[in-house]
Design brief:
By secondary structure, the protein is mostly helical. It is built from 18 helices and two strands. Strands 1-2 form a two-stranded antiparallel ribbon. Helix 5 packs antiparallel against helix 6 (114-145) and helix 13 (307-317) crosses helix 18. The protein starts with a helix and ends with a helix.
């Protein structure tokens, strides 16, 4: 199989996996947010409790990113599909637990503690799945594109994933209308609920005053179906890729599998061997011209550092990589606060309809998804720093606008919807400018290709801890009133 064909196959595969991951994540997340009070009767006055699943989601996703960096290295130098395929298989297999957790939780929704169980179990599984599959897709794409186009590859994967997230935010409105049914639990209602609600037939009829009295069921079925289908599709795709790769490897001619001894002899015979001129060796040696990029790199690179050494370097010793980790952490801390609490507040306190709230979510996700491929490609040409600084600045302005909207006592739903959508779009644009560039910047600072997966896994670990930190900040803010 030619180099170009392999590259296209790797990029296409990574794109499909990340689209599946983004789509199912958004459907499950919005279903959990809306079911927290409508199904599980979580306290309506505590937005942090209702967004509780973001805590185990962020923590488990962060740890899964570290695991992905290790799993990808298991067989990746022997077969470009090997390590990432293993990582993807583990991620999609973990997601198979989600439907059971969702359906059992909804069946026991009337029992005390049902919401914390649903939040903990489902959030953990979603975090593990996304951490493994998204990281594997990103690393597969970056390896296929090469270091010179790391920004473009990172941006492309983020664009594909977040475009799927945005599309799911629009689709969830239709699914909720068709599949979620509501009813009063008792014929006799409290005076507060009876005063504000005359009907409880659909999620739009639900009000905060009727929490625990007007209950809705069907959210778990939406999320369970989505996770089951995505997990099955992902596993089938991994199996297909693995079989195709195995057949290609067996069919390869002897010249495509150069023994390590022959490579070393060719290197020693090179006139520039003392200067370590790998580029001339690779261009002048017929025997080495058929090597895949990862194989060629293995010849000329020393043994990669250990996972522990790379983790310490990325977290502390290498200042540039450490700053990337800090920026990523802050970006996702903002996301944890804004997209856990804000989406709940807009629908259940500010009075936005499901359609209006979901369009606000899509206004964030579409720019974030669409612009990342351009931001990544631009950073390959202009450098990383300016885009990161601009993106973080735009995000700060957007969050300030959203905070000012939240402090307004009187809200007109129509006005609040478009104002929030504009601020959300700016936040999405700002995040898009920084997100893919940070991952590429970390890759730039790693000289040994064998350590890139460790470094990217470490960066994504610290970045996604921001989700958990954002939820903890929200819990403290709630407790403080």
């Amino acid at each position: 199989m030619g180099h170009t064909t392999v590259t296209v196959a790797l990029l296409s595969s990574a794109t499909v996996h990340v689209i599946l991951t983004g789509f199912v994540l958004q459907l499950a997340k919005l279903s959990l947010l809306d079911s927290s009070s409508r199904t599980f009767s979580a306290p309506i006055n505590s937005y942090a409790i209702r967004a509780l699943f973001l805590l185990p989601f962020g923590a488990s996703k962060a740890l899964a990113n570290l695991l992905a960096g290790v799993l990808v290295r298991v067989r990746d130098f022997k077969n470009q599909w090997g390590g990432t395929s293993l990582c993807l298989a583990v991620g999609w297999s973990a997601l198979l637990l989600a439907p059971a957790f969702l359906l059992v939780s909804e069946a026991r929704a009337s029992y005390a503690g049902s919401w914390p169980f649903a939040a903990l179990a489902t959030g953990t599984v979603l975090g593990v799945e996304q951490g493994l599959t998204w990281s594997a897709s990103l690393l597969r794409a970056m390896d296929a594109a090469g270091k010179e186009r790391a920004g473009l590859a990172s941006g492309w994967i983020e664009t594909a994933g977040y475009s799927a997230i945005a599309a799911a935010a629009v689709l969830i409105t239709t699914l909720e209308t068709k599949h979620v049914k509501c009813a009063f639990t008792d014929v006799t209602r409290s005076a507060t609920c009876a005063k504000v609600a005359t009907s409880c037939a659909s999620p739009s009829d639900w009000t905060a005053a009727c929490t625990g009295e007007c209950t809705c069921h069907g959210y778990a079925a939406i999320a369970a179906t989505a996770t089951a289908v995505a997990a099955a599709a992902g596993l089938v795709l991994v199996a297909t890729e693995t079989l195709a790769s195995s057949r290609t490897t067996k069919a390869a001619s002897p010249k495509d599998d150069v023994p390590l001894v022959a490579m070393n002899e060719a290197f020693a015979a090179s006139p520039n061997a003392d200067q370590g001129d790998e580029d001339e060796l690779l261009t002048s040696s017929t025997s080495l011209s058929a090597l895949q990029p990862s194989q060629a790199f293995e010849v000329s690179s020393p043994s990669p550092p250990t996972f522990r050494a790379t983790f310490v370097d990325t977290s502390i010793k290498d200042v540039s990589r450490m700053l990337c980790c800090i920026c990523g952490f802050i970006a996702n801390l903002n996301s944890g606060l804004a997209w856990g609490l804000l989406l709940l507040w807009l629908r259940d306190h500010a009075g936005l309809s499901a359609t209006q709230r979901n369009y606000v979510a899509a206004s964030y996700s579409f720019p974030k998804g669409f612009m990342q491929v351009f931001a990544g490609a631009l950073s390959d040409r202009l450098g990383r720093r300016a885009l990161v600084v601009t993106g973080l600045g735009a995000s700060a302005v957007a969050l300030a606008v959203l905070a000012s909207l939240a402090r307004t006592n009187e809200h007109v739903p129509h006005d609040l919807a478009w104002q929030s959508s504009l601020a959300a779009a700016l936040l999405g644009l700002g995040t898009a400018l920084a997100y893919p560039v940070l991952a590429a910047a970390v890759s730039d600072r790693v000289s040994n290709k064998g350590a890139i997966s460790y470094a990217i896994g470490t960066f994504r670990f610290w970045r996604d801890l921001g989700y958990a930190a954002g939820t903890l900040v929200a819990l403290v803010a709630d407790a403080a009133g």
